User: Fold this.
Amino acid sequence: MSTITVKDGTEIFYKSWGAGQPIVFHHGWPLSGDDWDSQMMYFSERGYRVVAHDRRGHGRSSPASQGNDMDTYAADVAAVTAHLGLRNAVHIGHSTGGGEAIRYVAKYGSNGRVAKAVLIGAIPPRLTRSPTNPNGVPPEAIDGIRAGTAANRADFYNGFATGPFYGFNRAGAKVLPAVSANWMRQAMVGDIKAQYDCITAFADTDFTADLQSIDQPVLILHGEDDQVCPIDTTGRLAVKLLKHGSIKTYPGYPHGMATIHGDVLNPDILAFIRS
Assistant:
């Protein structure tokens, strides 16, 4: 296994293959770098170096009872990219990974380290409803995620994977049981404490200043039927805060669209990278 040990002793797992311009993938909660399988195959076959890590406490990275916050997540990514000597990279983040990617680009993306970024169904600028974010996800919904994770995460995760994550709960949806099973495989490998703490990180972190500070081009891709990160709360607000942002939306597409609609999204991402 390829791992590095960061400052606090946590081991971060990563995989890297191919050559050419690097593309770094940031996965969503509570998954692992394996969620990017189709993208890593697609882009490596087209001459890119692809890199994906497992966030601390997720996947094959070591359990983490501390540091489960966006600043530490971004620092872990910085350690991986420095270890691999990545320059002129494209950072692509889904959901929670979109917040992690934006925080990394804002804090560490200067001096030629980052060329562009892509956010897919991502959490920025802020997910939870607040006085300054009146259209956000209700706090009680976030509390429900906490309660389900703490009480019986296997049962809660199963309902999430077979329901709203991929839109399999919609009438007429093409249900793919193996996709939900793979989601469960990734999720249950991770550490429950780290996954529980990550809920606060993805729900309550405000990325407004990060988005406003980024000079690189950023493409936002968002499903119009995203039940996890509703587009009006996230993507459509985030693009307004970016200096060089653009957005493409997909009617009827769910939160997990990069997996079940990779045949559509991958060429769109490629076109943006090459532009």
